[in-house]
Design a protein that fits this description.
The chain has 136 residues and is an alpha+beta fold. The protein has a single domain, classed as HIT family, subunit A (2-Layer Sandwich). A five-stranded antiparallel sheet has the order 1-2-3-5-4, with helices on one face. A hairpin with a 3-residue loop joins β1 and β2. The chain is globular.
Length: 136
């Protein structure tokens, strides 16, 4: 799997790096929704979050907290979105796990249309997920 993010990690494509450690790289999005829009990616190659190793997932979680605090401090915002998509039908465009930290200013940032439904078969669904957690 060779994606644009792999090329950035390898140094083949430049980026505006804001954070890096052994497991994670964070850099400014080249097509930002708002000032400070930052991508946080694992160095491990995995297309979707469920394919990521627990070690990379833990490092990514820690980095997300650290980078989100820094983005807020640097941009002066207190509100922001964290967006992460998995798979083409979920609007994933680059098939390497990545999180967007998107500062929310009055006239910029992420816009969301939320088409909520009703919670049906809640006990059956919760039981299925609990069982799956035991076996993954």
């Amino acid at each position: 799997m060779s994606t644009i993010f792999k090329q950035i990690i390898d140094g083949d494509i430049p980026c505006h790096k804001v954070f890096e450690n052994e497991h994670v790289l964070a850099f400014l999005d080249v097509a930002p929704l708002s000032r400070g829009h930052t991508l946080v990616i694992p160095k491990e190659e995995a297309a979707t979050l469920d394919a990521l190793s627990p070690e990379s997932g833990a490092a990514l979680g820690e980095a997300l907290v650290h980078v989100a605090k820094a983005v807020c401090k640097a941009t002066g915002v207190s509100d922001y979105n964290v967006l992460q998509n998995n798979g083409a039908s979920a609007h994933q465009a680059v098939f390497h796990v990545h999180f967007h930290i998107i500062p929310k200013f009055e006239n910029s940032g992420l816009g969301i249309e939320w088409s909520s439904g009703e919670l049906n078969d809640a006990e059956e669904t919760a039981a299925s997920i609990r069982l799956a957690i035991e076996t993954v």
